[in-house]
């Protein structure tokens, strides 16, 4: 009987250890994805400003295609899926659209926890002027700007859906 209890306890502890390791791995993976998305977004903003910010027409009022972002070296290697497509690590698109003196960088398919983490990392840094969140890319036009820096409570309120879209206005 004592052996049976010992085997049961050992199995329970073994499964508990596996669960803890799996949880730690998933948390680490999620943090890694958020960090990569944050780095990609900042790189796209910085390179777009560097490439277009000092030209007479600046950002115009049109979309800057993924193919153009790739050809000009604006899109980071980690975001390139083909010669004409850039995506975030969650599988969402990146889209850059000029708004004359500023531009919008939009990305979607951001899970709620990652959305909250990303928003709290964004700060006004000379390039980034505003941020918006919506359930989809189409919702971003009607969304309101969130004041930077964003605290956790405001980020959790903004990232209200299971999957979110984020727009960063920069220039």
Question: What attributes does this structure have?
Answer:
Pilin-like, five-stranded antiparallel beta sheet, 171 residues, PilS_N, 4 helices, two-stranded antiparallel sheet, alpha+beta, Type 4 secretion system PilS N-terminal domain-containing protein
Task: Produce a short descriptive summary.
The protein contains four helices and seven strands. The protein is α+β, with helices and mostly antiparallel strands and 171 residues long.
Topology, element by element:
Blueprint: H1 2-52, E1 63-64, H2 66-71, E2 80-82, E3 85-86, E4 94-99, E5 102-111, H3 112-121, E6 128-134, H4 152-158, E7 163-170
Helix pairs in contact: 1-3, 3-4
Your description of this structure?
Strand 2 (80-82) and strand 3 (85-86) form a beta hairpin. Residues 19-28 have low confidence and may be disordered. This protein has helices spanning 2-52, 66-71, 112-121, 152-158; strands at 63-64, 80-82, 85-86, 94-99, 102-111, 128-134, 163-170. It has 4 helices and 7 strands; from the N terminus they run H-E-H-E-E-E-E-H-E-H-E. The radius of gyration is 21 Å and the shape is globular. Helix 1 (2-52) packs across helix 3 (112-121). By secondary structure, it is of the alpha+beta class. The strands form 2 sheets. Strands 1-4-5-7-6 form a 5-stranded antiparallel β-sheet.
Provide the succession of SSEs. HEHEEEEHEHE
Termini distance? 72 Å
User: Shape from CA axes?
Assistant: globular
The order of strands across the largest sheet is: 1-4-5-7-6
- How large is the radius of gyration? 21 Å
Segments where pLDDT lies below 50 for 5+ residues? 19-28
DSSP strand count: 7
Helix content: 40-55%
What percent strand? 15-25%
Structure annotation, total helices: 4
What is the SS-derived class?
Answer: alpha+beta
Q: Roughly what is the average pLDDT, rounded to an integer?
A: 86
Sketch the major β-sheet. 5 strands, antiparallel
InterPro entries: Pilin-like, PilS_N
Pfam family, one: PilS
Protein name: Type 4 secretion system PilS N-terminal domain-containing protein
